[in-house]
Design goal:
single chain; 84 residues; mainly beta; five-stranded mixed barrel
Length: 84
């Protein structure tokens, strides 16, 4: 699990079938002191996070597979919205 900040949303007209109807966010992961940690990642969101929100994300593919389908190539998903 890691903390990140939503920097935008992603849309696609051509996508994997398991991505249909799913909300995708672009999240910049944060390291110590809130500094950017690597490149932004594509994260699936069912909790309603918006641009600028801090989110708790996981790269546990099994959780995402249980939510959107066993054969999904997706990796990251929002697990929670931390208090401010």
């Amino acid at each position: 699990m890691q903390i990140g900040r939503v920097i935008g949303t992603a849309t696609s007209t051509v996508k994997h079938p398991t991505f249909q109807g799913e909300r995708m966010l672009v999240v910049q992961l944060e390291g110590t002191e809130g500094r950017a940690d690597g490149e932004p990642v594509l994260v699936f969101d069912r909790l309603g996070a918006g641009r600028g929100d801090r989110v708790l994300v996981t790269s546990d593919g099994q959780i995402l597979q249980e939510q959107i389908g066993r054969n999904t190539p997706g990796r990251w998903s929002v697990m929670g919205l931390p208090d401010r």
